[in-house]
Automatic annotation (TrEMBL):
Residues 234-264 are annotated as: Disordered. This is Pentacotripeptide-repeat region of PRORP domain-containing protein. The lineage of its organism: Eukaryota, Fungi, Dikarya, Ascomycota, Pezizomycotina. Signal peptide: none annotated. Residues 253-262 have a biased composition (Polar residues).
Amino acid sequence: MPSSHLTRQVFRRLLANEPIVYRGCLRRQAYSSVASVGGPQYRRRQNDSFAIRMPQRRTFFNLGMFRKPRRERKEADMDPGIEKMMELEKLQRMRARPPPQEEIKKALRDFIYSKQDSRTAMEDTQARLVLLSLKHCLESVGEGSEVLHQESQDPVFATKFYKALTYTLGRPPRQVSDAHLELARYLFELLRTGNAVLARGTATAYCKIWCYAGSPNKALELLQSIDFPMAKPSMSPELGAEEHQEEGEAVESSMNQQQTPISDPVTPVLLHTLRTFVSMRDSSGVERTLAIMQDRGVRESYHTAACLVEMAIVQGDADRAQRHWKDFTRLAFAELDQSRNSPSGVSSVSSNQKQVIDKLLQWCMKVGHLDLGHEVVRDVMQDNPPKPIWDAVFVWAAGTGKGVDEVGRMFDVMESSNDGIPPDSWRTADAATINGLVKLAISKDDPYMAERFIALGRERGIEPDAKTLVLQMDYRLSVKDIDGALTAYKNLQYMDLSGDEDLPVVNRLIVALSSSKRHDFDTVMNVVADLSDRQARFDPLTTSTLALLHLNRDEIHDVIDLLNTHAYHYSSAERTSIRDALVSYCLDMETPTSRAWDAYSIIRDVFDELPREPRTELMSSFFRRQRPDMAVHVFNHMRTHSRADTIPTIDTYISAFLGTARLRDLESLEVVHNQLKLDFNINITTPLRNALIIAYTACSRPRKALGFWDDIVASREGPSYNSLHIALRACEKSPFGDLKAKEIWEKLRKMNVDLDSTMWASYVAALAGNGNVAAACKTMEDADADRELDVDPFVLGSLFAGAPGFDRQGDVEAWARAKYPREWADLEKLGCEEDEAGTRAFYIDRSVTP
């Protein structure tokens, strides 16, 4: 190859940032004939003498058999239909064409029916999407169309769909938001006329949402404004199998439906409202609800008596608690007599009776009303009570001073009362008995007592069940006994868990193990893997803790998989807690920059709703990390976002300009400035132009910066005091800036602007910045003589800092020592720093803000 051609090839490679390889290698030419057909193909460069299409690499027959397989990213786990509804929301924000309406209808149908089948609540983020999608679908038919009030052929407008929707909406979510209330109100207004079953269902769901939101007064107002029809207790033939079951459960849990031929459909809602007033300690609301129930002819029941007992407890009124307890006992025993032939009815009454007794006795123990507690025990022990009542009495005995051994002897008393009772009704201590005693020990913060009760059970042949081990993990974690809790958890693995009652404490165990320095990563992951195999949902704290744990180990794929599995099933508040933990991790300056960037990339991908303020903080943090390129990426991500609460504002631009100014990065500054020129949402203001002057001055473009000063002067808003300081700083760094500074100063003098010492300091520094030190010193002397300026260390320090170079600073120092020795001595006490060129700067704050 001729030398000129070789030189040309080398420089072309360098300019194109491509590797320089010798194409004439005989071994490469020989191997090129067996190149893989499916391998990467490279275009032939012009003037290439030997254009070999196979890249230079070492492989084993190009099979890649020893290469580690690439890990596939786990797709986001969302409820059916949610992804399509999210797409609709985004396209509407962007004012783009929405997806086909049939796809939105299918997404709505899939989501609602999946929620109904799983019997899970609708979170606030999901309620917002459902409302948006439902409105979008109804736009095509009109909200007042007859298709909504009769059985429609469209599955979205069918009665079954609306029943499933109102049922799902009526389940208690983790967090009630405005989206829940808006969806309930929309459905209520949409369906209040027409189908009576739908109208009743939507009104019931609306009232429940108000109660969940802590506004039972709104629920009462709504109930009083509706003329509910009286409905027979038999199931409506229009209901599906699941709805039959749910409606039956709701009625049975609130009223004994079997005893009345006709049941008021509003009674369950009134009972729910009554319980809400009780939990809020609102006695007037309780009285109003009882009055409404009486007006509607709702007969007195043990349910209302139980609410009144609880109300007396929360108010601390022992006399009322005693009176309502008598009423509850009378009504409960009457209900038991009427339900002898109904095992489910007996079980329901006994369960409610046990709950009331537990609450009342625990309150008596807590506040010291022992006389009332003993009276309650005497009332329930008049006849040989069922075993759950015995368990409550054992807890009372242990809570009032009985020792573990004495409680054990009480077990013998209970078992001796089995004479004359059928064997299937015998009262014997079991794991439930021990669990109640362990709960008491936990409430008293006495883990030793809890262990003794468990040991008592083992002595009597009662082995701990799953509930016992869950309680054991609970109190051991409370005293920081992580090893003990881990042992209990391992024992729990051999138990049959019918539900998810262990999930809260197992989540606490994962968090404790992750925070512990004594347990390794594999121990944590073993517990996590068990929950993952059960397809259990992690608590938000668990998710954020594990995400940070993986981030600290640079396991980015694990973080993404974790968040994609759980993040889309949380409420907005729970998502915010996880998001804030990751943002705090990024903002921590001890976090390596690479990990901070990885964490930000994950946040941007999973938490698209991240608002502007934390994004701005992240951008500023990357500026502090000396990474303007990353900071500009964060800014551009805000700039291209479609959410109004995310796109940059004037303050965002100012933060970006100041960040580039601190790093003196001209390239980043120009990128942000170009984005500003294209942003039609921003009206240029004086503070924004001030930031531009600061940034371009810091990036050694003071003449361009002064162009923005001219824009400020010509604008309607005009300059501020900060604008004057900033412009004079630009004059200080600009060639012939002293002339511009004099022009500005003359205008200020003509306009009689109040000029304080800081303004004089900026002016004399601008004069000295172009080497005109003598004029600057003369100006200060004249101003001092005319008593326009009180020379202080800040003015001298500004003049000294503005003087360019070592020699000019020496002239200023000599003049100041002679003219103002005391002020110069005070300035020297502040100390100074010196750069590589020998230029000094005293420790005075000359920073300017927009």
